[in-house]
């Protein structure tokens, strides 16, 4: 399975957030790594948009983006950043929030959920659900027209998928769920784990470390951890699922798509050939990131009923 040339160059030049050796990190080093962002230049421009404001949703920090200069109601897209439940944040994800608002035409709500290991499972999942629930509870505050969707990348995709079934069970209708290279099953026993478990950006050992930080001692079959294992997929929100061919998480994400379609839920799975985990977050490095962002934005606009270009 040949790597995309840009993926090959990326792996040769860059290390993950921690600089290598996650097992060597103590809490002080984790916090130091959070404060740094050596990949900032590749996350896309901080494009000027009509409105960016910091608020809270029942105590959870959020950043709200609106590209439209009007004040009428719009669909709302709740966004969850990646980082293995340990790294990342609203500030680091700022360029992505702006880009989503521009591409979709929706109000984007970026959730600053609590991070592990200081705040272990289910803290992040609880915060994600709090933000989604708050959008439904206070539509005027968010300038929401009643249509709400979720999007998440990597661990954020996990939180988005968990929030999707929680919304269904609470009788709240999500318009769409967009999951980008998501963590959907902590079992780590798929063929993609065997094929890409070392040397492809997100190693199997690194994924296991993230899981230990977030959910030490928790049952990996708990659907709040592994939403692929939710007892029933019936009635879940339609989905767009982006996978990278050379990613340990590929198979669980594609199986999730199969579960949805098997339950009668519309789901599109888009696999990016030769790509590695994390490609979507770096449009400055990967042409496929721009392609995937446009695909996701188009699917969201269609789901929201927003016609034409934003």
Strand content: 15-25%
If you compute it from the alpha carbons, what radius of gyration comes out, rounded to the nearest whole angstrom? Answer: 18 Å
Structural class: alpha/beta
Distance between the ends: 37 Å
Largest sheet: 8 strands, mixed
Count, helices: 10
Average pLDDT works out at 95
Biggest sheet strand line-up: 1-2-4-3-5-6-7-8
Shape: globular
The helix content is: 25-40%
Q: How many extended strands?
A: 8
H and E string: HHEEEHEHHEHEHHEHEH
Task: Indicate the low-confidence ranges by residue numbers.
Answer: none
Walk me through what this model shows.
There is one protein chain. By secondary structure, the protein is an alpha/beta fold. It is 36% helix and 19% strand. It is built from 10 helices and 8 strands. An 8-stranded mixed sheet has the order 1-2-4-3-5-6-7-8, with helices on both faces. α4 (123-137) crosses α6. The mean pLDDT is 95.
């Amino acid at each position: 399975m040949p790597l995309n040339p840009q993926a090959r160059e990326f792996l040769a030049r860059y290390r993950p957030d921690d600089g290598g050796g996650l097992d060597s990190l103590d809490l002080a080093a984790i916090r130091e790594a959070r404060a740094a962002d050596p990949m900032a230049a590749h996350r896309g421009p901080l494009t000027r948009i009509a409105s960016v404001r910091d608020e809270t949703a029942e105590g959870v920090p959020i950043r709200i983006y609106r590209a439209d200069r009007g004040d009428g109601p719009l669909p709302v897209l709740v966004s969850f950043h990646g980082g293995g439940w340990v790294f990342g944040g609203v500030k680091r994800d700022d360029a992505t929030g702006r880009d989503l608002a521009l591409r979709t035409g929706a109000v984007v709500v970026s959730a600053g959920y609590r991070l592990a290991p200081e705040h272990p499972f289910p803290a992040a999942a609880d915060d994600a659900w709090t933000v989604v629930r708050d959008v439904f509870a206070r539509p005027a505050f968010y300038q929401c027209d009643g249509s709400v969707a979720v999007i998440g990348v990597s661990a954020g995709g996990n939180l988005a998928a968990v929030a999707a079934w929680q919304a269904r069970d609470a009788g709240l209708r999500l318009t769409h769920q967009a999951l980008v290279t998501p963590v959907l099953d902590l079992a780590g026993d798929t063929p993609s784990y065997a094929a890409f478990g070392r040397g492809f950006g997100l190693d199997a050992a690194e994924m296991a470390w993230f899981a230990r930080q977030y959910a030490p001692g928790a049952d990996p079959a708990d659907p709040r951890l592994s939403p692929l294992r939710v007892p029933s997929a019936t009635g879940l929100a339609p989905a767009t699922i982006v996978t990278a061919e050379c990613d340990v998480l590929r198979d669980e994400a594609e199986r999730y798509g199969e579960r949805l379609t098997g339950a009668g839920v519309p789901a599109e799975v888009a696999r990016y050939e030769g790509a590695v985990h994390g490609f979507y977050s770096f449009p400055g490095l990967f042409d496929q990131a721009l392609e995937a962002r446009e695909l996701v934005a188009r699917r969201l606009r269609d789901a929201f009923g927003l016609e034409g270009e934003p």
